[in-house]
Amino acid sequence: MAEKVWLDESKSFEERAKALVGEMTLEEKVFQTLFSAPAIERLGVPAYNYWNEALHGVARAGVATVFPQAIGLAASFDEDLLGEVADTISTEARAKFNMQQQYGDRDIYKGLTFWSPNVNIFRDPRWGRGHETFGEDPFLSGRLGTRFIRGMQGTDGKYMKVAACAKHFAVHSGPEDQRHSFNAIVSEQDLRETYLPAFRACVKEGVEAVMGAYNRTNGEACCGSKKLLVDILRGEWGFGGHVTSDCWALKDFHEFHMVTANQEETVALAMNSGCDLNCGNLYVHLLQAVRDGLVEESTIDRAVTRLFTTRMKLGLFDKKDEVPFNSIGYENVDTEEARKLNREASRRTIVLLKNESGLLPLDKKSIRTIGVIGPNADNRKALVGNYEGTASEYVTVLEGIREAVGDDVRVMYSEGCHLFRDRVQGLGQANDRIAEAKAVAQMSDVVVAVMGLDPGLEGEEGDQGNEFASGDKPNLELPGLQEKVLRELAATGKPVVLVLLGGSALAIPWADENIPAILDAWYPGAQGGRAVADVLFGKACPEGKLPVTFYRTTEELPAFTDYAMKGRTYRYMEQPALYPFGYGLSYTTWACEDVSVTGDVAEGVTCSMRLSNTGTIAGAQTVQVYVKAPLAGGPNAQLKGLCKVRLQPGESKQVSISLAKEAFAVYNDKGRFVLLPGEYKVYVGISQPDARSAELLGVKPEEFTLRYDGEELKID
C-alpha cells in the first residue's frame, strides 16, 4: 500500500479524500455510497451512518433540547435567534457524537451529517410536512435557512462542526400520499421565482449537502434530474458538496415514476446525475451497472470522493487534538443555558392574532379561577411536532399555567373533546366531555381554550398515527368537535382566550369574529407551556409574525396537486386573508417615523426609519420591506428585507435595510432574472402592504415610488 496520503493533514481535504478512494476496490467504493457505509478495516476507515436529523434539535437519538418546530422558529422572523438555536443544536450534536464514539456506537442517528434544514416552500396549508419548513416565502426561507446552516456548520475556518443538508430538492410540497409517483408540473417562472431561491441561498452560504425529493419535476425524477442536479445545482450554482437521495426514493424511479426499466437503470440514472449517496440500499446494483457499461467507475470515484471530503471536513480522519469540536463533552447536552434559550425561542415564536379590548395579558391578581380547556391543553405531542428528540422535561400549556399562577389562582381543567374524534371514551356518546367543559367554564373567571392540531394529524407519509390522508390535512378547519366546543365556551359569556397549537394555517373565521383573544403558539417545543404562560400573563411580549397566510376557507385554495403559484400565498393571492403573512400584534405600541428610501433601483437602495416603542412594555418588532415590480401578471409586493429590533418602553432606534438591485429584479415567463424598465413600489413598515394587514393593525407601511428607465437588464 502506498503512503497514507489521506492522513496527511497538510493536504487539502479533497486531495486526501481522492487519495483514499484511490486505494479502494470497486466493491468497497460502491458500499461507501450507501447511507450506512461499512468499515474498510484494511484502510483504517470506520463504519459511518450518514442519516441523522436536526430540524429543531438533535432527533431520534435520546435526550436533547427540543426547540420549537421549524415553522415556529420561522414565526420569530429572527435570523440571530435561528443562529443561536442552530449553534446549540450543533453543540449537542458534537457532544452526543463524541460520547457515542467513546462507546463504539455508530448506529443510525449517531453521525454528524444532519439532513436539515427543510427549505421547501409551504405553498399549500394542507401539506402535512409544511411545519418542517420556514413558511411560504422564498426570501424568508432563504434568510432563515442560511443562518441555520451557519449555526450548524460553524465558523471554524477549517473544520465543520456538523454538516447541514438542504432538502428536498426541488419543487416538493405534497400530496404526501402521491409523492412516490407524483409529477410536479411547474413553469420556468415559478421554478426560478418560488421553488429554487431558498436552495440557491443555502448553496451560496456553503451548505455541505443537498437532498433530492421523492417526486418528479416536469417529468424528471428529482434524485436523477439532469436539469436540477447537473445543470442548476452544480452547473449554475457551482455546488461542491454531496447530494443524497431521499430515503428509498430511488426505487420509485422504476416502480412508480416509470422513468427507468429496472434497478440497474435506476442506479445508473441517479449516479450519472450526481446523486452521490443512497438513503436506501439500491446502490449495491452499481456493481452490475458498471459491468454492464451503464456507469463509469470514475463517476463512482467522484461520488465517493465527495462523501469522504465531507467526512474529512468533519475531522473524522484527523488527530483528536487537532479538531476543536472533539473537546465538547456530554455535559453540554440539555444544559440550563439550553433550556433558557429554548423557553426564550418559544416565546419569540408566539403570534398574537387578536386582542380585543386588551384582554391580554391576563392579570393574575384579578383572577380567582382559570379554566384550561381543550384537547391540546395537556398534549405533549402538540409541543414538539415531528423529527423530534427526547426532552428531559416537557411542560404542557396546562402545566405552564399552573406553574405561573401558583397557589394564588385555582386552575380547573377539562379535555373538552378529543382532538379529532367525536368522543373521548370509545363507549361514550358523542361529545362526551361537553358537560364538564361547560361546568369548568362557568366556574372560571377566564377560559384558556387550547386547541388545534398535533403531529398525528399533519406529518410525513408513513409516520405512525397519522389520521388524515397520509399526513396531509383534508381541509383547514379545526378537527373534530373543537369549534363546537369553542362555541359552547363562548356562549357561557366568560372571556375566552384561544391558544392554537399546530404547524399550519387554520381557517377560524368564527373564532376571529367571536373570541376576544387568539394566540398561535405553533409546536412550541418542550418548554412551550412555560412560554405560552409567559405571554398569557405578560411576562413576555408577543413578537411573532406569521410565516404563512391564514386563509378564510379551504374552498378558496387551488387544487392541492396544482403547483402553479397563481392564487397561492400572499405573493399571488387575490382575496383578503383572514390573517396575512407577516402579521402579528404586540402588547406594546410602535411608531415608524422619518421613513425614507434613498438610492437607485439599478444600483441598490437604502430604506431607513426611526422605530420607537411608544408603549409601556419592552418588546420586539420586525421591520419589513416589500417590493412590487412592474411585471404584468407578476407577484404582489414581495418581502425583500427584514430586521428584528428590541426596544425598551420609550426607546427609539434608527433602522436601515439595504436592498441590492437583485431585490427589484423578477423572473419573466422564460425564467430569466431581469430588471424591467418602469415603476417600482417600495413599502417600509411592520407588515406587508395589503388592506387586511392595515385593517388589523390600524397602520400601513410607507409607500415609495422608484423608476428605472434603462433597458431591460439581465441579472446574473
Number of E-type strands: 24
Ends distance: 48 Å
Q: What is the CATH-assigned architecture of the domain at 336-541?
A: 3-Layer(aba) Sandwich
CATH superfamily of the domain at 336-541: Glycoside hydrolase family 3 C-terminal domain
Describe this structure in words.
- With 716 residues, the protein is an alpha/beta fold.
- 28% of the residues lie in helices and 17% in strands.
- The chain has 21 helices and 24 strands.
- The chain has a six-stranded mixed beta sheet with strand order 9-14-13-12-10-11, with helices on both faces. It has a four-stranded antiparallel beta sheet with strand order 18-17-22-23, with no helix packed on it. A three-stranded parallel beta sheet has the order 3-5-8.
Summarize this, please?
The protein is an alpha/beta fold. The chain is built from 21 helices and 24 strands. Among the domains are: 336-541, Glycoside hydrolase family 3 C-terminal domain (Rossmann fold, 3-Layer(aba) Sandwich), CATH 3.40.50; 590-714, Immunoglobulin-like (Sandwich), CATH 2.60.40.10.
Name the features.
716 residues, Rossmann fold, alpha/beta, single chain
SSE blueprint:
Layout: H1 13-22, H2 26-31, E1 36-37, E2 48-49, H3 70-75, H4 79-102, H5 138-153, E3 165-169, E4 183-184, H6 188-195, H7 197-205, E5 209-212, E6 216-217, E7 220-221, H8 226-236, E8 242-244, H9 252-257, H10 263-272, H11 286-291, H12 297-313, H13 336-349, E9 351-355, E10 369-373, H14 381-384, H15 397-405, E11 410-414, H16 434-443, E12 446-452, H17 482-491, E13 496-501, H18 509-514, E14 517-520, H19 528-536, H20 569-572, E15 590-600, E16 604-613, E17 619-628, E18 638-647, E19 652-659, E20 666-667, E21 673-675, E22 678-685, H21 691-697, E23 702-708, E24 713-714
Parallel strand pairs: 3-5, 4-6, 5-8, 10-11, 10-12, 12-13, 13-14
Antiparallel strand pairs: 1-2, 6-7, 9-14, 15-16, 16-19, 17-18, 17-22, 20-21, 21-24, 22-23
Helix pairs in contact: 1-12, 4-5, 4-13, 5-7, 13-19, 15-19
